[in-house]
Prior knowledge:
Elements (H helix, E strand, L loop, with lengths): L2 H25 L4 H21 L21
Amino acid sequence: MSFRAINQKYLEPGSQVLMVLGIIALCQPWNMLLHSYGLTIILIGLIGFNVTSKIAPEEEAGTGQVRNSGAQH
């Protein structure tokens, strides 16, 4: 498995989940430590997403076309 495939499968969705968890940590009223670091968690997820979204997906062998794992049109 190449780095681009790992990025597309794990790193990019992981940074999106980190941003959502940061929002949850910022809005929850029970734990002051999570509330204190909520914005930091969001920013780390945002920076991670900006970096991982710039990495192009893996090309299919021999075709020169980029694989699209999304919906078919």
